[in-house]
Amino acid sequence: MTDVTDKRSGKPARSGIDASLFYNPTARGIVYQGALLIGVVMLIWWLQSNAATNLAALGRSTGFNFLNQTAGFNIGFSLLPFDRTSTYLDVYLVGILNTLLVAVIGIILATMLGFVIGIARLSPNFLIRKLAAAYVEIMRNMPLLLQLFFWYFLALNALPGVRQSYELPLGAVLNQRGLYLPLLQSDDRFLILLGVFVVAVIGAILWRRRQIRKMEEKGERRPVLLPMLGIILIPTIIVYFIAQVPVAFSVPELTGFNYTGGFVVPPELTALVVGLVVYTAAFIAEIVRAGIQAVNYGQVEAASALGLKDSDRLRLVVIPQALRIIIPPLTSQYLNLTKNSSLGAAIAFPELVNVFMGTAINQSGRAVEIVGLTMAVYLTFSLITSLFMNWYNSRVALVER
């Protein structure tokens, strides 16, 4: 192959195929990613076809028709109506809701406790600082499964029997069989009241953001908490009286050998949530401490020069800047907590792995389908959590000019 001189530039021009695409990083990246995608698809197809062939050789059919079959067993704790006549699809939904319940409650409580412990780690008080450090070092260096066993077999089983139950405020009762809470009873009009309350909360949040923006522009501090409560409570109370929403509480009462009425939180759920919260909060505390220490101390000195109190410096200056460092590793802890909820099977809590991958597999024999459906649930939870946290991270990220 010979080179031909370009008449315009006077440089030698290559004949045949243009090689510029080969040296283009973007084009090469597209090619590599396409090849990787094709490889992954072919691997999944090979695994699926291989599994189908092996199952066919054993005389077993594949598919998801078994989800419409009757399960034939009970589940101890369910947010949905469930009995022996329910289907495997109902088992799947119950496991998803129970896992989601543990994940949501655990994330909220672990975040609150982790922030408190993380701030306490930097307290000028020697006792508070050392107690927070001891909590972090002890909890994060013990296996989570061991902690779940502790909370379930030792702490909760040490509670008194039904006759000697602890009577808590607001009519709640605690004993070995669980935590009995008052249950709200109403009709469809309560959904209207709940919708008004949610809209009022969103309006209060939007109003607060607008007021903070005005305060930043004018440099004036105005009360925010009381007006927000007014925005939320006034329309809710008005709708409550206009719609005449019936609201009553079913309080637990001792009847015979057990309590009736109210809502029962089983000890397995309590032990699982407490164990996950205590364990994950230790890691979140270290993330919070590192994020706060990463903020330039000059920011604290500038806030002090403006006359801000300690609480205002932390809330208005330090924490907003520390969030840019805290959120990415905090996302990983949220994902870990959600996936660690599968350890509830060790203490017999009916979450997804226990009721679907445990009992349902033994009953139906559809291991491949059930494992695939379970993996899809955890993958979906993780992706949704990551998308939300990445969106929030972009909102608090420092915008450079």
TrEMBL record:
GO terms for cellular component: ATP-binding cassette (ABC) transporter complex. The chain crosses the membrane at residues 30-48, 91-120, 141-159, 190-207, 228-249, 269-288, 370-392. Keywords: Amino-acid transport, Cell membrane, Membrane, Transmembrane, Transmembrane helix, Transport. One of its GO terms (biological process) is amino acid transport. Coiled coil: none annotated. Pfam families: BPD_transp_1. Residues 96-389 form the ABC transmembrane type-1 domain. GO terms for molecular function: transmembrane transporter activity. SUPFAM superfamilies: MetI-like. CDD domains: TM_PBP2. InterPro entries: AA_ABC_transptr_permease_3TM (IPR010065), ArtM/GltK/GlnP/TcyL/YhdX-like (IPR043429), MetI-like (IPR000515), MetI-like_sf (IPR035906). It is found in: Cell inner membrane; Cell membrane. It is a multi-pass membrane protein. It comes from the Bacteria. The keyword Membrane applies. The keyword Transmembrane applies. Belongs to the binding-protein-dependent transport system permease family. HisMQ subfamily. This is General L-amino acid transport system permease protein. It comes from Pelagibacterium luteolum. The lineage of its organism: Bacteria, Pseudomonadati, Pseudomonadota, Alphaproteobacteria, Hyphomicrobiales.
